[in-house]
Request: fold
Amino acid sequence: MKGSFVAVVAATAVLCAAGAANAGFTVHTSLASFNAATSAQGTDTYTGFSITGVTASPIVRSAGAYGYTASAANGFFGAGTVGDPWLSTNTATDSIVFSNFTGGASAFGGNFFDSNIAGAFAAGDIMITAVDSSGSVSQTIVGATTSSFLGFVSDGSLVSLTVAAVQPVSGFIWPTVDNFVLAQAIPAPGAAAMLGLGGMLAARRRR
Reply:
C-alpha cells in the first residue's frame, strides 16, 4: 500500500493545442504528432517495475538509446499490474521529476495520468512542467486517462520534466506515468535550410 501522508496541492490549468509553441518547446497532445516532429524515439514501458513495495529514489532508467534519472521525494511505488506496471510515487503530493537526459535527447513525452492508493487508475487532473535551456512551459491534462499523451519538443537543451497530481477536494490521487519517450527533434524546414546553407558556406571557405 502506498504511503498515506498527503497535503492538498493547488495547480493552475494551462491548456495548449497540439503542436503549439511555448517558450523553447513545441507541445504535442498526440503521440502521432510527436513522432512526426521527432526521430529515433526510445520508450520506457516500465516492464518489470515493482508494484509491491517502495523503490528508493532516484532511479536511473533507459528509453531506447537514451538514459535519464527519475526522482521522487519519498520514493516510488509502482502502480498498474505486474503485466503492465506504471511509474508512480509512494506519496500522493510528491512530484515525479525526470532529469539528467543522455544520448542527445531533445524531446520527451509520455502517458500522464493519476492512480489511487491501491495503484489502480483514478480519474483526475495531472500537471506537467517541462524545462529546457530557454525556459519552461506547464500543461494540465483535465480528466486524464491512461491514454492521455503530452510531448514536448525543444529547440534547446532539455533540463527536466516534472509530473504532479492535481489533488481533488476530497480524497487523494498519485501522479502516474507510462510509456515515457525520449527522442531527437527534427529541425524545422527553415532551420534545416539554414543549416544546409551554413554547410555550403563553410565548404566554400575551406577551398
The longest helix spans residues 189-206.
